[in-house]
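Inverse folding, one chain.
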C-alpha cells in the first residue's frame, strides 16, 4: 500500500507557473474546477445578505483597482486563465480580502475603511491575486487531501491479534474475522 501511495504522490508532482517550484497536486483541473464551483457557491450563500450590488461605490472602487492590477500584469499568462470577478461584502467588522483560485475576489468593507487609498488596497489585492495565479489554493487543497487521506489510513484501522481471531477496529464500526461487523457503541 505504501508503494501505491508513493507512486500516486510522485506521479502528481507538477512545476509551479512562474517560480518553477515543484509541488504535489492531487486533482485534475476538471476536479478542481468542480471543487472551486462548490466553494464559490458556498461563499455566495454565506454572504448573500451582505453582498453589495455591482453599482455600489465600494464595488466600483474594488473593480477599478482590480482592472488596473490585471492590465498592469497582462503579460503574465496565468492572468488570462481566470474569469476574474469582484464581490464586496458589507461587513465593517472584518478587515480582510481573499481571492478564490478561480479568480473570484471577495473584499470586506472593513478592509476598505482600513486602507487610506487605492494604492494600499492594490497592494493587498495584488497579494491575494498572486495566490490565485500561482495556484496556491490547488496546492493547499492537495496537501490537505494528502494529510486527511494518510491520517484516515493510520487511524481508521487498528490491528490487534488475540489467540482466537484478528480484529480490525475503526471509529465507525468494529469487525472481526470470527464475529463479523457491528455498529459503534454510543
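Residues assigned per position:
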Amino acid at each position: 500500500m505504501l508503494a501505491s501511495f508513493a507512486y500516486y504522490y510522485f506521479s502528481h508532482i507538477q512545476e509551479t507557473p512562474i517560480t518553477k517550484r515543484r509541488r504535489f497536486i492531487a486533482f485534475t483541473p476538471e476536479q478542481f474546477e468542480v471543487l472551486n464551483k462548490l466553494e464559490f457557491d458556498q461563499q455566495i450563500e454565506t454572504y448573500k445578505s451582505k453582498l453589495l450590488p455591482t453599482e455600489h461605490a465600494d464595488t466600483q472602487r474594488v473593480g477599478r483597482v482590480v482592472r488596473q492590477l490585471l492590465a498592469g500584469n497582462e503579460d503574465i499568462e496565468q492572468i488570462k486563465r481566470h474569469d476574474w470577478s469582484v464581490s464586496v461584502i458589507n461587513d465593517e467588522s472584518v478587515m480582510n480580502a481573499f481571492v478564490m483560485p478561480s479568480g473570484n475576489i471577495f473584499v470586506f468593507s472593513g478592509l476598505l475603511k482600513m486602507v487610506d487609498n487605492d494604492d494600499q488596497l492594490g497592494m493587498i489585492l495584488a497579494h491575494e491575486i498572486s495566490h490565485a495565479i500561482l495556484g496556491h489554493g490547488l496546492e493547499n487543497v492537495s496537501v490537505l487531501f494528502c494529510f486527511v487521506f494518510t491520517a484516515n489510513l493510520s487511524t481508521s484501522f487498528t490491528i490487534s491479534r488475540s489467540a482466537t481471531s484478528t480484529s480490525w477496529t475503526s471509529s465507525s464500526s468494529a469487525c472481526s474475522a470470527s464475529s463479523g461487523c457491528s455498529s459503534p457503541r454510543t
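Helices lie at 2-11, 29-47, 57-72, 77-80, 109-114, 118-133, 136-156. Residues 58 and 88 are 7 Å apart (CA to CA).
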